[in-house]
Amino acid sequence: VAFDELDRERLYAVMRLRQQVFVVEQESIYLDLDGRDQGAAHMLVLEGKELVAYQRCLPPGLSYPESALGRIVVAPRARGRDLGRELVRRGIAYNLEQWPQNDICINAQSYLERFYTALGFSAEGEEYMEDGIPHIRMRFKAP
């Protein structure tokens, strides 16, 4: 959904889940509200009214010259059920449908490199630190 279509309760749930996992669980102090949410499409996975997984799909030019996926997160209680894998697959399909001539770039946490490689991404460059966590830039080539 577009940012403007997120009601207050859903937006609150998105921000809460992102903070729960990225800031508290991963102990990464960073500015989550980076000004990109307003231009992104938001994919939410709900169980009943509870948000259990989320990602944002970013158009070319918002984060990179290419399109991007970001803030990919699964709630701790919902892990181990392949929700993240399905969510990323849907994000890839969405970005390729919206921006078919554009590759998809992500800043992947390094420990997830194999996960993203299995979904068709390739690592680019060297590992780097972002918000206190090792990351690697990865690319999904548009067909």
Structure description:
The chain is of the alpha+beta class and 143 residues long. Helices cover 28% and strands 33% of the residues. The protein contains 3 helices and 6 strands. It has a 6-stranded mixed sheet, with helices on both faces. Strand 2 and strand 3 (67-74) form a beta hairpin. The longest helix is centred in the N-terminal third of the chain and has 18 residues, at 8-25. It starts with 7 loop residues before the first helix and ends with a strand. The model has no long low-confidence stretch (mean pLDDT 96).
Compile the SSE list and pairings.
Layout: H1 8-25, E1 41-47, E2 50-58, E3 67-74, H2 83-98, E4 104-109, H3 113-118, E5 122-130, E6 133-140
* Largest sheet: number of strands, sense, barrel closure: 6 strands, mixed
Mean pLDDT: 96
Structural class: alpha+beta
Q: Tell how many strands the DSSP assignment holds.
A: 6
Task: Encode the helix/strand succession as letters.
Answer: HEEEHEHEE
Short description:
The protein has helices spanning 8-25, 83-98, 113-118, and strands at 41-47, 50-58, 67-74, 104-109, 122-130, 133-140. By secondary structure, the protein is of the alpha+beta class.
